[in-house]
Structure formats: structure tokens, C-alpha cells
Amino acid sequence: MTIFPSSSQEIPAVGEVPRHIAIIMDGNGRWAKKRFMPRVAGHKRGVETVREIIKACIERGVGYLTLFAFSSENWRRPQEEVTFLMQLFLRALEEEVSKLHENKIRFRVIGDLSRFDPQIVGLIRKGESLTAKNTALTLTIAANYGGRWDILQAVERMLANHPGQQSGFSEEDLAAHLALNFGPEPDLFIRTGGEQRISNFMLWQLAYTELYFTDTLWPEFDTAALDVAIGSYRRRERRFGRTSEQLQTPVSPSRPEVECLSPAKQENA
Ligand code: IPE
Ligand code: IPE
Ligand code: MG
Questions:
Q1: Helix H segments across the chain?
Q2: Does the C-beta of 27 come closer than 6 Å to ligand 1?
Q3: What CATH number did the domain enclosing 230 receive?
């Protein structure tokens, strides 16, 4: 049983501010190339953007921020770039986790950690337990993460937890075993860097997420750019399969979750 129902099953509340924002931070390499710098300089600069966006999310009341930092396919990159990214991750873990804790941020990592250096895994686990009770924001870093890997490991863990059962599983049963089973599905997905694809990010959870793509490269994505993305989200009408007219019907006491479904409609009225 999961606390957060699947959006394809029950209709979640929709507010002015997305409760969960998930971001594919793309365009670091091109940002560096434009400046005749090595690709890795873009990754370094991208960490500064991460700091700014975390701060902005807290100020705006976003509850969950999930950042795609390294995909299960990124091992295919040149060895020296992979090594640099691992060192950057290690340094960030060493230097930033205490600051996250000071700012009451809960830190989580999702992904297949089996390929990571034990030193990195140790720091991740330490950071997660240190910050476990924080409530200002849940910051989740997706590292060696792939949406297909996630669904597969969820199926395996679900079967292991239900010995002998072969059928009759619900979507909630599977969702409870996904790597990010401690938060709601993303309301807003942002991809910087101009590509309009999901690149194996949270395949299961993005089923009803509002998608936002921008050409802005990640190192240049700032608070103002985040506000443009949130503004776009607020103009959307999230119908979850129903008709626009149904969203206008008065709230029935038996379906309180419908209450704030359409900020966009009010805005455009
Ligand atoms: C995203 O930026 C960061 C990671 C994938 C680690 P890229 O490195 O993909 O930048 P581009 O897409 O080559 O510009
Ligand atoms: C997606 O970016 C992964 C991360 C941002 C971590 P990529 O740059 O790896 O995606 P593709 O290869 O262009 O789809
Ligand atoms: Mg890229």
C-alpha cells in the first residue's frame, strides 16, 4: 500500500504550485562548447544552477524536487567525462550534504547504486539518514537511474514481497516498490537543453505529469526561468481523463480531491 495514489487511478489535488517538480538537467556540454571550454566545465557550472533551483523551490513551497544527474545510459560517455562526473558527485556529497541539512532539506538518491564506488554509496546512505526527518523540501537525485530499470526492480521486489502470488496485483502494489515510493508523482516535468524526449527518466510516474521543454541550457536555467516553467504549468488544465466541463461542476463532498483542480480555468476566466 502506498500513501500516494497513482494519478491514473485517483485524481490528485492540483494546486497553484507544483507539489513535485522533476527535471532533466540537460545542456551542460553545449553550454561549455559555446564558450570553447571542455564539456566538464559545463557540469561544474551546472552544480551552481542546482543550488539556485533548490533555493527557489523552497521559497515557492515546492515539496519535492527530483533531479536527473546521471542516467543508466551515461556510462556510454568517454571514460574521462564519467570519471569527472563521479568526482563531482563525490565532492558535492562531501561538501553539500551538511548545507542541505542546515536548510532542513531531506536528501534522497534513486538509482542502481551497485556500480558506484563504495565511498560514494557510504556518503549517500549517511546523508540520507542524517536528513531523513527534514521537511522543507525532499531533494531526490537520480543517479545511475533508468525508468526501465526502476520498473523492473519494482516488479522483482513486489514478487519477492508476495511469495506465491502470480496475478491480481494493482498499480499501487507496483508503485509502492518503485525507487521513488516516498513521494507523489511529479506534477511538472522540465527538460532544459532543447531536446524533447524523456531519455528513460521516470517512465511510470510521468504518465500524467505536465511536460515542459525549454531551449535554455542547464547552466543558464535560473529562478526566472523556473518561474516561467511554473507559469506554464499553472495555465494547464489537468483533466486526468475527464472532460473540461466536468472540472467546472461543483465540488461533491464525496470527492474533496477535486476541489482545486483548475487554477488555469480561473485565470483564463
Ligand atoms: C546533462 O548535460 C548532464 C548529464 C547528462 C550528466 P549534457 O552533458 O548531456 O550536455 P549536452 O546535452 O551534451 O549539452
Ligand atoms: C539525460 O540527458 C540524462 C541526464 C540529464 C542525466 P542525456 O544528455 O544523457 O540524454 P540524451 O542522450 O540526449 O537523450
Ligand atoms: Mg545531453
A1: 28-34, 39-60, 79-102, 118-130, 147-161, 171-175, 223-234, 244-248, 263-268
A2: yes
A3: 3.40.1180.10
